[in-house]
Amino acid sequence: MAYFYIVFLALLVACSGLVSSTFVWKHHNNEELPLVLEEIHEKCPNITRVYALTEPSVRNVPLYVIEFSDSPGFHQPYKPEVKYVGNIHGNEVLGRELLLGLADYLCERYLNHDRKIKTLIHTTRIHLLPAMNPDGWQLSTETGAKDYLIGRNNNHSVDLNRNFPDLDAITFELERQGINHNNHLLRDVTRLTAPVEPETRAVIRWMMAIPFVLSAALHGGDLVANYPYDESRSGAPVSEYSASPDDDTFRDLAMTYAESHADMADPQRQGCRVSNSDDSTSYNFGKQGGVTNGAAWYSLKGGMQDFSYLATNAFEVTLELGCKKYPPTEELEEEWHKNREALLAFIWKAHIGIKGIVGDDSGFIKNAIVSVVNITGPVPRPIRHDITTGDYGDYYRLLTPGHYEVTAIHPGYFPVSRVVTVPHHQTAARILNFKLEPKTSWFDDYTYGSFPYGLHDGQPRIYKRSLYEQVTNMMLEKKDTKH
Ligand SMILES: *[C@@H]1O[C@H](CO)[C@@H](O)[C@H](O)[C@H]1NC(C)=O
Ligand SMILES: *[C@@H]1O[C@H](CO)[C@@H](O)[C@H](O)[C@H]1NC(C)=O
Ligand SMILES: *[C@@H]1O[C@H](CO)[C@@H](O)[C@H](O)[C@H]1NC(C)=O
Ligand SMILES: [Zn+2]
């Protein structure tokens, strides 16, 4: 008997070495966080990869990401890339734990052959950065996790969600001048108002290295899904609606999260600032469907959300996950149940609209421009935010249901336009490929008029290139191919 017992024990120990421990809902510290990611990777080695961004925090804590994909480490054409970023404000910690829980859930459901999760992972590349500001988390935790502000900033006392280059100012100025140069505006930055912090720099490089399509930043302190722009057109710290060219699509993205969340969109729920009875109603986002335009709430400069939209092809929203910035441990699991469907539904949104490859006879075309006119209503309305093709000539254009005229443009080729209908309830984008014909040398741009939406070479540019451009390019555009 004793012999069998010992064999049994030995087996148990051997197994527990292989089968990783189950995920526990608690506040994971900066040492535990990478261990959780590593355990998930060991459980699901074929569909995950753990990596750190190019630089650590001020206090030298690596910024870890876990990636889910059926070919971890590689972008594949027709597969949109999505990211979630948590704990940007160090004392807003729910997103950090939810992303760890989400990672464990994706792995577990995949192993259990959950068909929807398997399809999601086979068609999407998902990156989760649970903590962008581990130093702030440390300070907030060590000081009792109570204060509304302590631990918000990084260790240089900088608010990371005010530290991104202000591209709104550039796009608003271009709008005023009637110049339709409307995307990838980082190269138009002539001066930085403040040094870029290491955490911000790491995230900017990440954004530049991976062709993200959809993104959300996870915050706390209120319960609302906030969409661009965050900055008012006047730049003044006022509350005024500041619509982006993709306002309809952004509202749809934000509403998807709010409506899939247990109570974000509930009109009966209480607002977060109930103590101040005078202005409690103005902050009760439940009464407006759980969503808000950023600047309509309050205007801010240098946020990550607007930067993402104006510097890359990624559409980003900001999710305020609850009134409590640092909820107690015993509430974490309940919060997970409130947010789980919303976190998944939002990732599926990377599959709305259209996608495809722009190419010519001999292959694909990088950096082609894909522009869209909304022809759903009686009056055609150009959406003045172009998307560009990536390293495999692929593009992803999120759109809400309707009819659109889509044009692919690249210097040296004739533009090609196609009409497409975007249906309701998509779980896969409509595929719309373009084959461009090169212009022969005796044709020039003037023969066929100028490009309809791109910036023409001779057109005046108000933002002069400067030394700063070289500096920022050197700093930011050094692509790390390992990502
Ligand atoms: C990973 O893939 C290999 C080869 O396809 C397979 O044998 C193995 O069972 C997979 N492992 C897991 C945990 O899915
Ligand atoms: C920076 O980190 C050190 C060590 O954790 C801490 O003592 C200090 O208060 C932090 N400073 C700020 C501004 O967060
Ligand atoms: C296109 O126009 C229709 C009707 O005006 C609208 O419902 C839809 O949201 C618009 N799409 C986008 C992406 O703006
Ligand atoms: Zn925040």
TrEMBL record:
Residues 1-21 form the signal peptide. The keyword Zinc applies. The active site is at 320 (proton donor/acceptor). One of its GO terms (biological process) is peptide metabolic process. It comes from the Eukaryota. Keywords: Carboxypeptidase, Glycoprotein, Hydrolase, Metal-binding, Metalloprotease, Protease, Secreted, Signal, Zinc. PANTHER family: CARBOXYPEPTIDASE E, PROTEASE M14 CARBOXYPEPTIDASE. Belongs to the peptidase M14 family. This is Peptidase M14 domain-containing protein. It comes from Pieris brassicae (White butterfly).
